[in-house]
Amino acid sequence: MSPIDLPEYTPLFYSQEKGRYFRHEFIRKIEAETKRSLIVYFSDVRHPGGSIDRDDIAPFGDLLQKAGPDLDLLIHSPGGDIDAAEKIVYMCRSKTKTFRVIVPEYAKSAATLIALAADVILMGYASELGPIDPQIVITTPEGRSIQRPARSFLDGLEDIKRKVKEDGELSPVYYPPLSQLDPALLDYCNKVIKRSREFAVKWLRQHMLQARPDEAGTIADRLLDVNRYLSHGIVIDHIEAKEIGLTVEYLAPDNNLWRAVWALHCVYQTDLKASRGETAKFFESGSVSIRS
After folding, report:
1. Which among 114, 113, 108 has a CA at the least distance from the CA of 39?
2. Cβ distance 121 to 223 under 8 Å?
3. Rounded-to-integer distance, Cα 74 and Cα 8, Å
4. What's this model's pTM, rounded to 2 decimal places?
5. Three-state DSSP class for 67?
6. Contact yes or no for 75/100 (Cβ under 8 A)
7. Yes or no: is domain 11-130+235-291 CATH 1.10.1660?
8. Residue 223 CB burial class (10 angstroms; 0-12, 13-18, ≥19)
9. Which end of the chain offers a freer environment for a tag, N or C, measured as fewer CB atoms within 10 Å?
10. What residues have CB less than 8 Å from 171, skipping those under 6 apart?
């Protein structure tokens, strides 16, 4: 009888961790297809801990240790801390000669900013980027925490000033919103909008738009335009991303790489649901697996 090909791990350990080894094997197969290193940053977009934050830096350090000069980052994220996002960009770009960002479904806000730092963004029919207008967390009078666009605070103040000028007096209806518009908040709104724009312009000029750097400011302003994008969650698909001026490679549904990427995406979605809220993020490569 020929020897049976068994895993090198003990049976119980392997059975408990088989999902992770399956994902590792899947990643290595994609790497064999592309001849590039692949790392995965996959978040539960509905989990309170699913946003990009400073705790992501150490896992990225592990992911990048064995990464080659040609790197693909598969990202699924709602966004988060812009400074942490830029640190991730610095880390990825310092290890690579070429850098692609693969968006199977959802890369919004600060995750869109990470994509802007790539040489090219790979997107399929289900992929979406989003506006990069910063969101501010405030506490309502009822004690609830809610997010509002930074630009909305500034625009709201301008609307009130315009109304006062027209009417000649301040209506009491504006007292509640004005109570939330302290000078420090308004100053912060201006600064975070500027920060987001500078992030986009800087990295677009350095890489994706190296041959046409003058377009970077126009693209950043469009992605910050809350009058064009009335919802922070609005879909920017591959067609619009190209129309904006981004370097996007569209992977058709029958493309081998897209089929593999979408299948891996579905595996992560399934495994996140199976964790029943215990896992907010996966950081994985062909040999590294970290959860948070």
Report:
1. 114
2. no
3. 28
4. 0.89
5. coil
6. no
7. no
8. buried
9. N
10. 163
